[in-house]
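Posting for a labmate who doesn't have an account.
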Amino acid sequence: MIRIDTAWLAAAPMDMRAGTDTALARVVAVFGAAQPHTAYIFANKRANRLKILVHDGFGIWLAARRLHQGKFIWVSGDVPTVSLQHAQLDALVLGLPWQRLGPHVVISVV
């Protein structure tokens, strides 16, 4: 498996025809650099397709995911980038509402 320590989501849409070099250039433009063991997630305008670029410390991996129905839950353009936790990344890739996961939704008293 590819180790991912950190995941970042870019709010601005990306052309899904972009290959590895174009996606890497976009990561450098948006995030400043491609850090090792970090995933960078982009969506198209309709938010029904994702591209995830991962720098594994040796090279670059580019993965794509498409939903045939519905769309991925995405952030507004007000915030250019968002850091995701592992559970949020897993939920996002499945098309689930990833914003509902995290420490702020813990139920401690019933």
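Reply:
Got it, the structure tokens are right above this. The two ends are 38 Å apart (CA to CA).
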